[in-house]
Each structure stands twice: as structure tokens, then as C-alpha cells.
Amino acid sequence: MGSVDLSTLKVVEEWERKAKEILPKGAYDYVNSGSGKEETSTKNVQVFSKWSLVPRMLRNVKTSSLATKLWGVTLATPVMLAPVGFQTVIHPSGELAAAKASDKLGIPYITSTVSSYNIEAIALAAPTTPKFFQLYWPGDDEIAVSFVRRAEQSGYTAIVLTVDTSVIGYRERDLQNQYFPLRQGAGMANYLSDPIFQKKYNAEGSNEQTELIGKIAPLIFNQTLTWEKVAWLKTKTSLPVIIKGILHPADAKLAKAYGVDGVVVSNHGGRQLDGAISSLEALPAIAKELKGEMPIFFDGGIRRGSDIIKALALGADFVCVGRLYAYGLAFGVEGVYTVLKNLISDLDVSLALTGVTSISEVDDTIIVKNT
Ligand SMILES: Cc1cc2nc3c(=O)[nH]c(=O)nc-3n(C[C@H](O)[C@H](O)[C@H](O)COP(=O)(O)O)c2cc1C
Ligand SMILES: O=C(O)C(=O)c1ccccc1
Fold first, then answer.
1. Regarding the domain with residue range 6-51+69-361, which homologous superfamily does it belong to in the CATH classification?
2. Which InterPro entries match (predicted)?
3. What is the pTM of this model?
4. Which of 28, 44, 131, 161 could cross-link to 23 by cystine, CB 3.0-4.6 Å?
């Protein structure tokens, strides 16, 4: 592993290939795979080729800037790290490495509920850039509120409630490998460090892994969530609440009606409902409902700078990357830093070549659907 000179790894797909070489098969398949026949995860990446950018010329792009504003705060770029759980199955330094690398680049980090380090430790690894907490609403509301409170107290500035995960997707590769990241001891840090969980579910203070998995696993997903619960969550926190996993324009309308503060157009990287619409194809209809009303975040298939410009042109305000940085993490903090740095360099060049001088100027006048 130490023999790879990361500065020479520029081709995005090479990172994926190298990660596959390094990681145990179960871990690589867990990260790489989608659900079912992987139609949606594959389409997420390929769909970008269905649209073409139509660049403008002679527009003095010398001062072109990637800076973007979110709720009055200026961010270095429109890029964020999507919540990715269980990161110690990729590298022992896991979320701490990813958060540290993104912080160094001024890229906001979104901490997953099922992280292998806890909310507080990850906050300390990313002290300078805004960070969000992604909530998988536990089966117990008291724990949900406890997680949110802990995020507030450790300086997170938004809650990202993931709503596409009433149950975990049918992931054939994981099922065939019999690979479940919890069994690697990953993803439990927030539960184990939670006073409400310990009091209500582990009063005898067990440290035994199988026993703890037995207590935590049934709590992770909540099949009873409704829009009313979202409204209830809003009463429990003063932080903005972003809903992650919106694909249908009718749900975008409901998000507005229920007073949410942002949406992430996402199909969970094609890991939940296989056959679901690709994120990019879902984006225009949602932008039609919400553009200008609340920030629109986008994830799914972002691998290069021009992908980001296409998503912004079709209505996104911010994009999140998932697997791209997960592959970098196979090489630890330097790996994450390098993939992100490469992505931002690519975005910088691509924006200038589009003839656009600021992110907020990217709109649907520079994109066409191929015929
Ligand atoms: C290994 C892995 C773990 C993930 N864990 C979470 C999670 O804990 N919470 C969540 O909301 N989304 C999770 N996601 C989904 C991502 O946040 C994001 O929606 C998806 O990765 C975007 O697609 P991309 O990988 O093509 O960039 C995970 C994705 C991967 C690949
Ligand atoms: O892998 C995922 O996409 C994910 O979000 C998850 C969350 C909890 C348990 C298993 C997977």
C-alpha cells in the first residue's frame, strides 16, 4: 500500500481499481455495490452522458470562483462529503481521516449516524469547516433526540434526515458474501457512546460485540416515519433540517409544505430501490418545485468536475460525493485528500472552460439533453 504514489493517480477509475486490490472482497463489494441488479447505481454514473454542456466563450474567466453561499456562510466550493457509514471497514482511521481531509480543503463533512467514530470525535477532526449530522432516525425517539442534541453541542450546523431507508436495500453481493459491516464491529460508535441507549437498552453494561449488535441492529431503521414526524423533529431543534432521499416532485412539494430547510435529491447511490430513477433524471422536476425556495443538494454518480457542472445546471445548488472519497479512503487521509483535490482542480478547469465565472451563474442555458 505504501508503494503507491498517490500524486500519480489521476484517473478516477484507477482509484476504484486500486481500492478493489487493497480491500477485502466483502468490504469492497459493500462500498461498490448497489441493490438488486445494480441498474440504478450503474445508471447514476452513466446518465451524465445523456446531457451535454454548451460552453460560452470570450467571457473573461480569469477570476472564476468556486465559492458558494449556504445560509449566509461562504463555502470554498459547492461540494460536500455525503454521509458514508462504517468507514473503518475501509481504513482503520475511517471517518476521522475523511473528516480531516475534507476540513483541510474547506469541504463540509456529513457525519453518518452509523459512523465507526462518534459524533464528538469526528467534530474534533474537522474543527474549521461547517459539518452536518446525518440522522438515521432510531426506533426510539428519545435516542433520536439525544443524537440531535449531541450534534448541536459538538458544533454541527444542520441535520440531514435520511428518508429512503425504511429498510436496508436488497444488496445481492452483500447477501452472497454474507457481509454485514456491523459484524466487523463498525458503525456502532454513536449508539455505544449514547447515554440514553446505554440506560434503556444496555443497563447491564455489556461489552460483548454480538450482544451489542443484537441490541443496536433492530434500532437503526425506523419504518414508522411520516411527514408529521419531520414536523416534530423541527420542533426539537433549531438547526436546519435537510431531507435526504427525495426523488418524486410530489415529495418535494411536501418538503416545502412541512417547512423543511433543504432536500438532497438522492437514491442512496443506487443502494436502496433498484430500478429507481437515476438522481440526475430526478433532479429537473424537483428543481422546478423548489429552486430558489430552499437549497437543493444532489448526490449519485458524481465522479468528475463536469458531472458537478451538469448537476448544477439542472438545478442543484450543492453536490455530495460518496463512493469517490470512499475509494480514496482505502489509502487513508492522504487518499481522501488527493481524490478531493483532484476533483476540485477538475471542477475549476471545467468551470472556466464553460465560460462561467461563478457557481451561482451556472444554469440551464448551458446544458442540453442529447437527442
Ligand atoms: C459505503 C456507503 C455507505 C453509505 N452510508 C450512508 C449512511 O450512513 N447514511 C446515508 O444517508 N447515506 C449513506 N450512503 C449513501 C451516500 O450518502 C450517497 O447517497 C451515495 O453514496 C451517493 O452516490 P455516489 O456514491 O455515487 O456518490 C452510503 C453510501 C455508501 C457507498
Ligand atoms: O450502506 C448503506 O448505504 C447504509 O446506509 C447502511 C446503513 C445501516 C446499515 C447498513 C447499511
1. Aldolase class I (3.20.20.70)
2. Aldolase_TIM, Alpha-hydoxy_acid_DH_FMN, FMN-dep_DH, FMN_HAD, FMN_hydac_DH_AS
3. 0.99
4. 28
